[in-house]
């Protein structure tokens, strides 16, 4: 048997923005692209690019030459691509301008063994004559595609999918008329995934269903495309449906009429009535949507039910890369929200004794490419493929319970082995004893048990910041987006583990939500009675923390891990202790004293005062104001001469290379003020300096992280460039006093409140120091927005590229009658509105 996968149906095949490409045009381009391939049957060739018509031409040109097609992730790093290319050994690789650089770098690691074809450099002659009008495969037993998927070892495995595997899936779709040639299908998922490859490329071309390709991945582009094209079928991953459902339901819940209509719709089974009630939503989606399909990961059944209540046929399916991909799907009209659907024809499913879903049938892969060991491991002696999922059958419906193994499946369909990420992070640090990576609220979170002795040895006061920036951030910079850690939780005890030392991953969610206290067993936390000799000091500290932070404490409470103190909180707490107990402790004392018990011991060691004196002073509610208001003898940098030299040296570079511009400088008033903005790159301070005159530079002071000024030379430059260095572990109090001295002198302070350059071009959390200074000293905040610096000089690049950069100074923010939190929020919002 063979499949005629491409012939002229005398209709439009692909829509891409304004482009309308007919089947005849596709055939012409497939002929043209195949001319560049000197391959024989069974040879491998690959494509690596964004979804676009050329990716379809590239794919089918490989099939036209009887080759095995490999559709690769356009987001691969150089090392990832080099591994996959080294494993699959394709003769050719189709790329675009966007992927060419990574492809060439990976190819160079393989001694340039692969011929790279850039589709953006191909120009078909106007008089080009086609050689072939129809395309078919030779045998359905032949391998059609190699699809790379991450395995438990961390290295991607090449899944050999035959034409028969694909045909079985297409036959299952046709058997229930899921889609037909009267439909128009939207392709928004990347073609390196088996699901979109089969169901938004191969199947529609085979069935004669027009494909609409998204020109960019965004909700605005999605809705615009739906409204401009007669799309009837959308295939998406859960994250897409979650995003849309959230947006729609938010609007519905804001209107009592809409909420009533939604409730009314849920009471009727008539899809036509539901559709009528929510005709506005249907119009937003173009007015022609017949079917919404979710796959790639488990979806919350409530989301499917929301869409059905609004009159949409929303279904989910289930499958794997190794099953090309469908094992089961819900048939419209008899779908169930709690089930992944009915098993497709020519496929058998069996539930093993341990609950694992086993599959046998014509959809199951031939095996893993060049990996007999992995293939043997995937199949049992009777030929059943082991999915690694736990499930059960309810009549003819398959219900998936969860993963048997530890693999994390994100809502975007990505499969992640947490062990690989954990190993990658651990190999680059000695500050962590144990780490567990898990998914929480649709993001990867790392739970970390630090090496407290190492932290103490390195004199680290703020544990979370140290691990976040010195460990996790360094990993995130090189990790692909879907493997980045979005949040961390530091714990005081070992991770919950089995006796063999394996992490009990099912307990991680409870650990994140503070529902478990002990690593091996759930034991009730013992309440330690406060000894009478320290009770008065304990009560004073307890009162301060309760009133200031609304937190409950006990003697074991860790000021950072339990109470959530950051560097500023520690300085404020230190000042409270000093003024209340007439002692002199410094930030470094908190390296060795992090629990309430230890802090009371520290106070006892430093203090010789009576209880009466303590009681007298406790109600003064001392805070950072005392530090800021104090007449400190802290010395400011003596001059700004190197800031002026650098302005002189860099001005031509900024003007001619970066085409630098600044605007809104008239918004900066005379006298004291805090200039606050987003932090994009190493260029930022130089960009700001170029907006000021040499005279103004003498009155401008920067606050910068001491980490970047470690050497004597750098410290000297900072001291003669009006740069005040901040070290959260050592001299934050002095930094605050120096900053206050600048402002009291009627000069300006420039701060990047994110504390570090952006890693992804997005705004990060704003630290509150600038707002505290503005509020306490009643000086205005002058927000500014930097643009282009991230694109010109992103975090992980060594040299900047040419790109237009600019600084825009915004209208000032008056601190009067505003809380610190309100000032932080208002400043960030103002910058964000002008940045995005």
Automatic annotation (TrEMBL):
SMART domains: PlsC
Family annotation (Pfam families): Acyltransferase, AMP-binding, AMP-binding_C_3, PP-binding
Domain (Carrier): residue spans on this chain: 531-607
Listed CDD domains: LPLAT_AGPAT-like
Top-level taxonomic group: Bacteria
Cross-referenced InterPro entries: ACP-like_sf (IPR036736), AMP-bd_C_sf (IPR045851), AMP-binding_CS (IPR020845), AMP-dep_synth/lig_dom (IPR000873), ANL_N_sf (IPR042099), Plipid/glycerol_acylTrfase (IPR002123), PP-bd_ACP (IPR009081)
Keywords associated with the record: Ligase
Catalytic activity: a long-chain fatty acid + ATP + CoA = a long-chain fatty acyl-CoA + AMP + diphosphate
Gene Ontology CC, one term: membrane
GO MF annotations, alphabetized: acyltransferase activity; long-chain fatty acid-CoA ligase activity
Descriptive protein name: Long-chain fatty acid--CoA ligase
Organism of derivation: Fusobacterium pseudoperiodonticum
Upper taxonomic lineage: Bacteria, Fusobacteriati, Fusobacteriota, Fusobacteriia, Fusobacteriales
